[in-house]
Amino acid sequence: MRTPLRVAIIGAGPAGIYAADALMKSDACAHRGVSIDLYERMPAPFGLIRYGVAPDHPRIKGIITALHKVLDKDQVRLLGNIDYGTDINLDDLRQFYDAVIFSTGANADRALAIPGIDLDGSYGAADFVSWYDGHPDVPRSWPLEAEKVAVLGVGNVALDVARVLAKTGDELLPTEIPPNVYEGLENNKALEVHVFGRRGPAQAKFTPLELRELDHSPTIEVIVNPEDIDYDEGSEAARRNSKQVDMVANTLEQWAIRDHGDRPHKLFLHFFESPSEILGEDGKVVGLKTERTQLDGTGNVKGTGEFRVWEVQAVYRAVGYRSEDVADIPFDDRTGTIPNEAGRVLDPTARDGARYLDGVYVTGWIKRGPVGLIGHTKGDAAETVACLLADQDRLTPAPRPHPDAVTEHLTAAGIPFTTWQGWYRLDAHERALGEPEGRERIKVVERADMLHASLAQ
């Protein structure tokens, strides 16, 4: 009788959990059986959901309910607080598993090559998101001295950053934010937040619901310049072909023609402004220089040669995430992805017709780049798992496939690892912290405190 297929998945965010779900639902694994270990660098699972979604978006965090059901399955085991490349490597994993799937995501900021990007007061959105989401590996404080702030980019992350900067600490207090984040936001001096997009309203990457949520805060006045409402033939085609694009454009049009109110914090959405330089004095940000652009008929834009300087004291770039390279695995610096075909990792040193690394696969943003919404990674997982299952008879069997073998290895190495049962303990602890204040939970930030709660018996 064949032993169950042993699979390690590196990264316990949505992409990795969807891959585990696809494996368990497959007909091949239903017949043979499958045993899956999900490795996570953090002591807690859920990746982007826990550390990349704004705290005032409980609707998106509700995805955790579906992910919970996957991790509750007997075929899946969570091994948290394990840093792949440091605590365990590919050679180790091949001792214990028939196949390895990498789903390490994208959590670094994409570079923006304009002068002044390294000035004090110029920040990456990913770093700011990690701070307000209570990531254990970032500083506990954030400089929020600027009264006027620029956010570069017109995607949902840019809106999250702008909204958090514009809201008061008290507005966010009912969420799960930890005390250090509340204290920082309560002392935030920002009164104006300017969001800049290089192209027009029809090219914005906001989702309609995310955009409309900007206007729900009683302290934020959203302002759109009527001169920024412009469409060409390509833009009109985009509106006709996408209900979401049309809804975003309609919302922006309505905001552009309404009277301004008296809410204390102003959030400006600027279009057709291409950032060209961050201006500084004495090493600190004092302004942003943009070039006015215009549509070229296709939905793209070209520069007009007209420049404007905006007085701001901080600039956040939200122009996209980027994956980081993974130890022992090929990596394409240009695309920020692991080279692959349908999830099979390509072997750049292969000879004699071999094309792929034996038993190594990839899924999620590190497979195709950081584009699309969380749910889009389901398709990635299905494709990757289909390839893995098609290859299973050709995989090199693990020499030590018993599930206890890897935990004995980790214990012998002195690595304190968390489990799914440990997550339940941490979850209960965070909920207990929030209960006296009428909050669903208060997120624990310190890694040592997370481990203490997770490992407590």
Count of separate structural domains: 2
Could you estimate the helical fraction of the residues in percent? Answer: 25-40%
Main sheet: strands, sense, barrel: 7 strands, mixed
Straight-line N-to-C gap: 37 Å
Q: How is the largest sheet built, in terms of strand order?
A: 3-2-1-4-18-17-16
Spans where pLDDT lies below 50 across 5 or more residues: none
CATH class of the largest domain: Alpha Beta
What is the rounded Rg?
24 Å
Q: Determine the mean pLDDT.
A: 94
Looking at the structure, the CATH topology of the largest domain is FAD/NAD(P)-binding domain
Corresponding CATH superfamily of the largest domain: FAD/NAD(P)-binding domain
Account of the protein in words:
- This protein has a seven-stranded mixed sheet with strand order 3-2-1-4-18-17-16, sandwiched between helices.
- The chain contains 18 helices and 18 strands.
- It folds into two domains: 5-107 and 323-418, 3-Layer(aba) Sandwich (Rossmann fold), CATH 3.40.50; 108-321, 3-Layer(bba) Sandwich (FAD/NAD(P)-binding domain), CATH 3.50.50.60.
- It has 457 residues and is of the alpha/beta class.
- α17 (420-434) packs across α18.
- The model has no long low-confidence stretch (mean pLDDT 94).
- The chain is globular and about 70 Å long.
- The longest helix has 15 residues, at 243-257.
